[in-house]
Known about the structure:
about 45% helix; single chain; alpha/beta; 21 helices; 17 strands; globular
Amino acid sequence: MSDRRISGVGVTPLLGVGTVVQYDSTVNLDDDERSAADPETERRRFEEARETAADELARERSRTAERVGADEAEIFDAHQQFLADPQITDGVETAVSEDGLTAERAVSRAFEDPIARFEEADGMFAERADDLRDVRDRVLRILLDRDRVDLSALPEGTVLVAERLTPSDTAQLDPDAVAGFVTVEGGRTSHAAIMARSLAIPAVVGVDPDALDLADGTRLVVDGTTGDVTVDPDDDAIAAARESDGATVRHDPVTTADGRHVEVAANVGTPREAVAAAERGADGVGLFRTEFLFLDREAPPDEDEQYEALTEVCEAFDGSRVVVRTLDIGGDKPIPYVDSDPGDNPFLGVRGVRFAPGERPELFEEHVRAILRAAAGPAQLAVMFPLVSTVTELDTLLDEVSAIAAELEEAGVDYAVPELGAMVETPASVFLAREFAERLDFLSIGTNDLTQYVMAAARDDDRVASLHDPLHPPVLRAIGRTVEAAHEGDAWVGMCGEMAGDPDLTELLVGLGLDELSMSAVTIPDVKAGVRAVDDESAAALAETALRAETREDVRALID
């Protein structure tokens, strides 16, 4: 067999060459010969397994936030909710008490109907079935005392082939070792696909089940752009595929066809991600998520540890701008050593600057001291504050920075006050963008949260997934208003939400007047190519027409 092709859906604009490793994550109960003891024993076994699973999920969330990103880690919050869902727990109770099943059989039965209902739905609802399977299999594995396959230790050059990959599976993958993955199930918006893009792993999903018959060691080319998987390619086919592998990586800054510079930066969460982003041609960092330093540990990092991490990220970019977001923890991003009540609605509660400096000023002070010390180095450091909603909040933050700078001055410590900015994530910050810009050097639009708050649609609720699209006219107009206000206030304006990394939207965003676009490193070459192709006059006309549109479908039609 030579150069046979399997077609699916490409979910990462990258190409990988490697050899097959088949993976089956199914937890099989056929060998479970254990007979049920009394119901009380089975209930206790289930509760203990559930507690162990909850602890595992908390640790996995922290690791994923550090390795992949804070947004991607939020999927494990949904897994915690599934674990505590009364429909599941009541189903287990009934199966144990009334039907005399073992805890394992009871768990398997309790998940059957919810998984089936998700599978019958469309779009993102259907893909949530994999999240339920992930939770079910985790509990079953604990009950059966079975070891989990360690996907973090796959041999270099692996192309993982599976019926499906769960979020827990994908979060383990090492992008330095895994050349790609191919799955029978899944779509572009599945959590496995989202994590693949964040990890920069070539991936094709939705292929024919015959892929599961490929022998381990079979050579494959995985084209995450076209969705083609080539089986047993010869050297010429591999060379041809690599030659056509997406956009060329450009390490120099880019301008539009008319000469307007647009910075194309990366969102990163670790120093290692910063190095990878620089290799993909990022002009700098538009969002450094500092919360990774505070996760998966028993105590917060001290000032020196934070300083070292900041310096390491800056060194990856050799003097280019690195935008640091101050600690964005609280509410939906808890840390184990901080006793903070998330409240009934964590997205509307204590998070961002409401948490630090709001509730934890000592964490904020040490955090800012480290940032100001790092700003004294050769890097062009900038700092922005998350979830600022009032002018009073902003003025207080600026006073805090001035006071910390004065303390460093008095102590004879090298420091510098960098460019200062704020995230635009709420309708309040949109309406106050002019006032913010007059006090700051820049604004950065976080489209994920901005869309959530403008459309009143929670990011993690699939029932309102159709509303969580930044192309809805209210969100688009909020972006346009922010850009205009920022420029009127003599501040530059960037964007660091997922919208910035969609190459299909580059012309629109340039037309709206964005000065910087920051994204996952994997799409940087494509967005840079898009910027170079933009005609400023045409882009401005597109943006003007899009801002007058009345529906998301109208906007999408303009772009298509």
